[in-house]
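pasting for ref. prot 1 ->
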Amino acid sequence: MKHKLVLVFADDSEVVGIDNVLIFNNVLDAETYLRSTGHIVSVKIEPDDRWFTFKTNAWNGNGRAYWVVDRS
């Protein structure tokens, strides 16, 4: 069964919209993408760790990371 990693750039006070949700095949793809887009990222995502921290040019914050089943 394949899974995809979902990163949500929001905290509990924010509305989660399509603009702050990204889906990746694995953690390495997620980290590579974040670093390549100019995000200064501090991120460690383990299979059982649903939270990560990140730092961008605009602000610092927390995000959520979780795995979903790829049904495609």
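and prot 2 ->
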Amino acid sequence: MRWTAYEILLRLESPMHCGWRKQGNLLATRPYVTGRVMWGALTARIARLSGKGNLSDSRVYQEIGKKVNEHLAYTYFYPALKKGDSFEVIWPWADEATFRLRMMGSYASTALTYPQQSVHEGSLHEIEFISPWTIDDAQPVYLLGYIFEKEECDLQWKEALPKLQFGAERNYGWGQVSTVRNPTAIKENTLFASKYKVSLDNERPMVQVEKEIEIPAHVLADNNVKVSGRVEPLVGREWRSNNSKNRFVGQHIAFNGLCYPPGSRVLSDMSFRIGDFGIWQS
């Protein structure tokens, strides 16, 4: 099965929060766009572009989402800055303190109890975000990653790109992006400035990672994976309007397994298959 790999460059136009964990009142963000977030954004936009079905029925999105996983694969997307005529990915694990100082901010808010003209108890919260501009010198922030298209794919993903919206707080305008250039088919089978090699002639794209190099995606933890790093459960919220319980938006919890997170190091040369939601498997 033949795949075509496209390098995608997006400009981050507003703050972006890709949900991770809660620490006290702080809702922390992941410092990258996960495959599940990309899948959700593509599914939502392609479903609307298709104009088919009742968009108040989650089964329409489930059908499109299944096709997205079957006919597309994708890496995680990382913040990048322009450097000369090219764009350089800023890896969050290379220097975490500097990354957070330059790339991330937070927004605090609370609800009010209007009759008493006071703060509603327990509602104070702070939302962390990736900033559309660097905090120190106001450079525009971009998102760089790759989308793989299977032969004979008819999904309108290229048309969807300029209208994607990532993460939480989208009703407030967060997570908006714009395309910097048209999707560019890669000429050499390498990703992220030749840091990783990719094979496109398999059932799914395969990525080769050399010893002591960090993984840029979640990797399913199993006995065959020689990776050094912590392990975390990877879960996501979905909409299943046909469920008897937990049928409203975000109430269905989907569990994708125990994974090594991005930034973990491989202990020997390894090959990984890019599976559903951009999760790597040995």
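Helices lie at 35-50, 58-71, 96-103, 157-160.
The chain has four helices and 23 strands.
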